[in-house]
Amino acid sequence: MGERIEKPILLLTRPRASSEAFARQFHARFGADWPVIISPLLEIAPLDATIPPADALIFTSQHGVSAFAARENADGRIAYCVGARTAQAAQAAGFKAIAGEGGAEALVPVIAGEHRGGSLLHARGEEVAFDVAKALNLAGIETKTVILYRQRSLPLSAEAITTLEGKASVLVPLFSPNSARAFQAALPETHTPLFIAAISAAVAKSCLPAAHNRIDVAPSPDANGVLEALSSLLRAQMAG
């Protein structure tokens, strides 16, 4: 019999609810017995900002939907959303969701083509990789912004540190430049081989070359794209 190949461990560092949702997607694709460690490096902290009136909303993350829905009713308003999962969250909150494929930048032409007037409001977190409201205002579509949450840093769990200091390879999907920087700052000085799946080229650029053995960029900036990047990393490992 051939030598048994140990499965690399999947380490998830997003806020817990997002990590648990991605773990379910990962297990559905790669098998329920795959080892997964959840160690959030960021937590969502709501901010008490005044929400201006708006005829339609823009959401670039599920966190934005949750933060807004905790404060105001949807009232059947249109919500322009980045990705299917954000759109699903908006739909569940009572919005008429219009999903744009790709990242926040790709949502701008969708809004420009669909919006038929009325005030627009981007409900978001403190840090964004791309400023949708700024791009829309430059295009002549007046858009306001409200910042409803910030991300607070957390340390890696003892289990995550022990794993990173061990011998088993570790798969790490990274979903934003901020999370990439947080992960690298938390890494032990000496660590096991790391294989990074970056949701975008911007995230990949935030990763120091010395911090990983290989990095693959997702073919699309969403959860399915990250799963494809993880699949590519696994194929490369199996090929030796």
From TrEMBL:
Return one Gene Ontology term, BP aspect.
Answer: tetrapyrrole biosynthetic process
The name this protein carries in UniProt is Tetrapyrrole biosynthesis uroporphyrinogen III synthase domain-containing protein
- Quote the InterPro entries the UniProt record gives: 4pyrrol_syn_uPrphyn_synt_sf (IPR036108), 4pyrrol_synth_uPrphyn_synth (IPR003754)
Q: Which GO terms describe its molecular function?
A: uroporphyrinogen-III synthase activity
Q: Which residues form the Tetrapyrrole biosynthesis uroporphyrinogen III synthase domain?
A: 35-227
